[in-house]
Amino acid sequence: ILTSPNRRPLPNKDVLRDVTTLRVKQSEGNHNLMKGVKPANIGKGRAEVVSKLSHLIYQRSFIVDHTFHSSVNATYIPEGGPMAMAVVTMHGYMRWRHRTATDITFTRVFDRTMTLIPNTDANVPLLITNDMVELRPNADDPLCFSDNTERVATVARKFNLPPPIVFTCMTMVGSNDAAWFGLLLELQNSVPVSLLEMVATQLGHNDLAQVVNVARTMARKGINDINQAVQALSAAGGNVDALQ
Q: How far apart are CA 11 and CA 177, in angstroms?
């Protein structure tokens, strides 16, 4: 063990070498489309993919911790019928801790997309046919997360809706991008902003989720009276999709 001038122990040289080497390997895997740089870290077949993941992420010298964000999203193809394919996207943080010096760590943001297909083996019902991992420098609120302020503003411009309404819709569906965009598309196509504003004014409270659902009820049922819409929504247990 090395000792610094103030007599605090420093990490072993082997530990520092392992950490530096892994970080450099990950950085060298950069795929810069602007500069035409293509990554060499692509594997075909189970053995190659496992080898690449072990080389760049899951090295034996490290303990890897995963923290998942709530914005996990699954898309089924085709929708509404027997699944032929599923695409699952996850976001979060990975933290590497050296096994012999667990206080030596570094963190990166990750985006991971897996493509799955049904398997004939009942013991292994799904097969992973593609596994793509993207690592990025650590950040307090990466852009890939639904509750990021910049992303909410970008989505608000896309759907031409007020950012507070867009953020409220995200919280209503639990950061599921597909459900979030579906709800925003419904508002964009069927619920004018003027109706949202009128409902918010007349209800006289700051519960924007209630404002959104009352306005959706009015639009779906063709109701002009807000109190009548509130009663109809209440009779449906607060679930717009359960309206009679």
A: 42
The values of phi and psi at residue 206, to 5°, are: -100, 15
Asked if omega into 78 is within 30° of 0 (cis), the reply is yes
Task: Tell me the range of 56-60, 84-88, 141-145, 184-188 where mean pLDDT is highest.
Answer: 184-188
Exposed e or buried b for every residue in 151-174, given b needs 16+ CB within 10 A?
A: bbeebbeebebeeebbbbbbeebe
3-state DSSP helix/strand/coil % of the chain, to nearest 5: 40, 25, 35
Residue 5: pLDDT band with limits 50, 70, 90: very low
Q: How confident is the model over 202-238, as pLDDT tens digits? A: 887 678 889 999 999 999 889 889 999 999 988 888 8
The Cα-based distances of 42 to 47, 60, 93 in angstroms read 12, 20, 22
CA 29 from centre of chain: 22
By CB atoms closer than 10 A (0-12, 13-18, 19+), residue 181 is: middle
Q: How many CB atoms lie within 10 A of CB 196?
A: 20
pTM (predicted TM-score): 0.50
CA 100, 105, 108, 109 torsion-angle sign: positive
Contact 180, 173 (CB under 8 A): yes
**Contact (CB, 8 A) for 90 and 101:** no
